[in-house]
Structure formats: C-alpha cells, structure tokens
UniProtKB/TrEMBL annotation:
<comment type="similarity">
    <text>Belongs to the LysR transcriptional regulatory family.</text>
</comment>
<dbReference type="InterPro" id="IPR058163">
    <property type="entry name" value="LysR-type_TF_proteobact-type"/>
</dbReference>
<dbReference type="Pfam" id="PF03466">
    <property type="entry name" value="LysR_substrate"/>
</dbReference>
<keyword id="KW-0804">Transcription</keyword>
<protein>
    <submittedName>
        <fullName>HTH-type transcriptional regulator GltR</fullName>
    </submittedName>
</protein>
<dbReference type="InterPro" id="IPR000847">
    <property type="entry name" value="LysR_HTH_N"/>
</dbReference>
<dbReference type="InterPro" id="IPR005119">
    <property type="entry name" value="LysR_subst-bd"/>
</dbReference>
<keyword id="KW-0805">Transcription regulation</keyword>
<feature type="domain" description="HTH lysR-type">
    <location>
        <begin position="3"/>
        <end position="60"/>
    </location>
</feature>
<dbReference type="InterPro" id="IPR036388">
    <property type="entry name" value="WH-like_DNA-bd_sf"/>
</dbReference>
<dbReference type="InterPro" id="IPR036390">
    <property type="entry name" value="WH_DNA-bd_sf"/>
</dbReference>
<keyword id="KW-0238">DNA-binding</keyword>
<dbReference type="Pfam" id="PF00126">
    <property type="entry name" value="HTH_1"/>
</dbReference>
Length: 298
C-alpha cells in the first residue's frame, strides 16, 4: 500500500486543477517539480494516473480509483489534525476565504484586518471571484455565498441579511431627467450584471424590477460600482458600499428595496476543526457588525 501522504497531496491538487501550473499555484511549487513528483508517483504505483493532452491532465481509470482513496486519506488527515489539542489562544497558519466580489471588496478587508490584529501569525487570503466556489475541490477553506447551496457535503450558516437600493452619482442625477418613480428608469442608462453571466439567481437585481436591457454591464460588482460612481448611469448597489462612494446617493428608497443574505459555507469534514470553527465564528460576528455599521451610514 502506498503511504507517502505528500505525494498524494500533490496528486489531489493535479486532479482538481487539471494542470501542473494550476496545481503549482495551489501548492506554491514550480510546475516542473509537480510534474516530476507525479512521474515518481506513477512509477511507484506502476500505473498511469493521468491522460495528458493540450487541454490538461484528466484522470485515467487508475487515477479515478486513486482519487477516491486519496480523498479518504485527506479527510482522515484533516480529522486527525482537528482533534489535536489547541495550545494557543491565537490562530496561526493560513486560511483562504472565497467570496463574491461585493463582500470581498467592501466588507472582508476591514473584517479580516481586525481578525489579523488579534492573530498576528495568521495568514488570511481572500479570493474574490464572480462564481460559486467548489469546497470539495478545496478551492478555499470556507466561502461566502448569497444563496444557500442544497447539494454537496457542506455546512451552511446564515450570517446576516443586507439591503440594496438603486443609486446614482449626484453629477449624473443633475445632468439627466428626474427619477420620481420606477417608470422613469426607461429614460436612463442602467448599470448591472451581464445577464448570461449571473451565476446566482439572487444577483438578478434588475430582473426583479422587470428590466431586461442593461447598457453598461459587467460580471464584477466593483466595475458596476465604479460606473455608478463615475456618473455612468443608475444601478443597484449594496447599502454597505455607499459609504465608500462619495457623491453617490440612493434613489427611490421608499419604492424599490431589495433584501438578500450572506451565508457561510464550510465543508462537512471541517466541522470538528476548532481552528477553522474559531475563525468562522470571528468572521461571521465581524461581518454582521460591519454590515450593520455601514448600512447605518448609507
């Protein structure tokens, strides 16, 4: 039986990323080193684990069989580490959070900075991507989402609700016809998501308002916010982002208001990991407080 866990860890990274370069980034190793280690593993097992093509590395039947066993070993390793006694009150090591870019830009920096102040030996990584994170592939230790997943071996915790309103810059409003009701929006340039790139139904803000044409569209909240701030048009903005945009104000507040929620998603295997649980608690508490603070300033 092959028992070199370090080689199995590299094998898992290649299987999940499907390229040596992707695995190298995850492992912080040179891709050539990862390739040599995979050749050594295949030689030790006397089996071809990957079919190599210009598109990347895909698992052979032997590789798929090893993947199942390697993931079992990974879960056992994580469980064993989680059960080690905690000898310090401070968090250490590295924790990676996946998040949609709205929360990643306007909430997580200050919340994680506060956690870092209390835990100076902890390395926190925020991965901001406009898509759902795959925790089973270990893309992150935990993720923030705007809807609760219903499939997979995941633990889901609602963190807090947040609010969104239409917003525009004072310069834009001064240069264009007044907006007194939702019907007036047809005379204005709208900012929003690219319709076919909305990765979560909860993000279809303009669709909820019956708006189908979006002249200025991006898959990034940050780009949308900058368009609004620069006077590009009218868009839906998180209330917690408004304090970061001088010269921008909410409009039609009493007529149009959206409520959404953030959820913290963790892999089931990490439930007994006290380190990740302590971080998750600090993260959730900090996010609730920061949303409340910023919405109070909007």
């Amino acid at each position: 039986m092959y028992t070199n866990w370090d080689d199995l860890r590299l094998f898992l990274a290649v299987a999940r990323e499907e390229t040596l370069s992707g695995a190298g980034k995850v492992l912080r190793l040179d891709p050539a080193t990862v390739g040599r280690r995979m050749q050594r593993l295949e030689a030790a097992l006397q089996a071809t684990l990957f079919a190599k093509s210009p598109q990347g590395y895909s698992l052979t039947d032997a590789g798929a069989a090893l993947l199942s066993r390697a993931e079992t070993a990974e879960r056992a390793m994580r469980s064993a580490i989680a059960e080690l006694p905690d000898t310090t009150d401070r968090l250490t090591g590295q924790i990676r959070i996946g998040a949609p870019d709205g929360s990643a830009n306007y909430l997580l920096p200050q919340v994680c900075a506060a956690i870092s102040d209390d835990n100076p030996d902890l390395d926190i990584q925020i991965v901001a991507l406009p898509r759902v994170f795959n925790l089973s592939r270990r893309e992150a230790d935990m993720a923030i989402a705007v809807s609760a997943p219903t499939a997979g071996r995941l633990v889901v915790q609602k963190i807090t609700e947040y609010h969104l309103h239409l917003a525009a810059s004072e310069a834009y409003l001064a240069a264009h016809p007044p907006i007194q009701s939702a019907s007036d929006l047809k005379h204005h340039r709208l900012v929003g998501y690219i319709p076919d790139m909305i990765f979560d139904r909860e993000l279809d803000y303009l669709g909820d308002l019956g708006i189908t044409r979006v002249p200025l569209a991006s898959n990034s909240v940050s780009v949308q916010i900058n368009w609004i701030r620069q006077g590009g048009g009218v868009g839906v903005a998180h209330d917690f982002s408004i304090p970061a945009m001088p010269g921008v104000r909410r409009i039609l507040i009493d007529q149009i208001s959206l409520t959404r929620a953030f959820y913290l998603i963790r892999h089931t295997d990490d439930q007994r990991n006290p380190r990740l649980s302590r971080f998750a608690q600090a993260l959730s508490t900090g996010l609730r407080a920061e949303v409340a603070r910023l919405e109070g300033l909007a």
